[in-house]
Amino acid sequence: MFMGGTIASNRFAILSFYAQYCIGSNWIPADNFLTTISDKRYRDWLTLLRDGNQNMVRLWGGGVYEPDVFYDICDGEPRALGFLLDLGADNYAELGILVWQDFQFACGVYPAHESFVETVKKEAEDNVRRLAHHPSLACLCGNNEDYQMVLQWGGAFICVTTVFLHKSTYQS
Fold first, then answer.
1. pTM of the complete model
2. CA torsion through residues 98, 13, 52, 62, sign
3. Which is more confidently placed, 19 or 86?
4. Fewest CB within 10 angstroms: 58, 92, 104, 151, which?
5. What is the mean pLDDT of residues 13-33?
6. Res 111: pLDDT
7. Plot region of 74 (φ>0 → left; ψ -120 to 50 → alpha; else → beta)
């Protein structure tokens, strides 16, 4: 279970009914040439994050779904996320970084026609199945700044709304 929010100026999350202070970084792809990123490079970058006293990384919705090795490194040892049961620092074993995974939709107005929505549904289901077993996965979310684009472009809202209304109102 994940619920996030802000109390005063502190970031926190409720994970499996335990409050956890979360501080972290926004992850964009580590290289323009994705196939050149070795396991060691992933580990080195994520170790810097952990050594900087961060416990969460957000995978930005305009990037990519990282390969399994990324999530494996974040998982760390099985007891790495033991702070969910005991908030003592001793439980921070090898990495144990929480992952906030955006679905890969960012900064745009996406079509709402049936064939596109079906591909989005398949993409979401495939990635949830692939990632769900990772104890580091704290949440999945989407729509990175998508609504902001609609608000900035004004008329785009009418187009998107019309597509949704058309499908729900006129489809028999």
1. 0.70
2. positive
3. 19
4. 151
5. 79
6. 80
7. alpha
CATH no. of 2-145: 3.20.20.80
Strands 98-102 and 56-59: parallel
Q: Domain map of the chain by residue range?
A: 2-145
Pairing label, strands 98-102, 137-141:
parallel
Handedness of CA 32, 35, 36, 39 (dihedral sign): positive
What residues contact 1, with CB distance under 8 A and at least 6 apart? 14, 15, 16, 17
**What ranges in the chain are assigned the alpha helix state H?**
39-51, 68-75, 114-131, 146-153, 155-170
DSSP state of 23: -
Q: Would you tell me how many other CB atoms lie within 10 Å of the CB of residue 94? A: 13
Q: ∠20-94-21 over CA atoms, to 5°?
A: 10
Residues labelled as active-site residues: 145
Q: Which amino acid is at 99?
A: V
Residue among 107, 104, 112, 109 at smallest CA distance from 145 = 107
Return the structure tokens found at 128. 């949830």
Helix (H) or strand (E) holding 20: strand 18-21
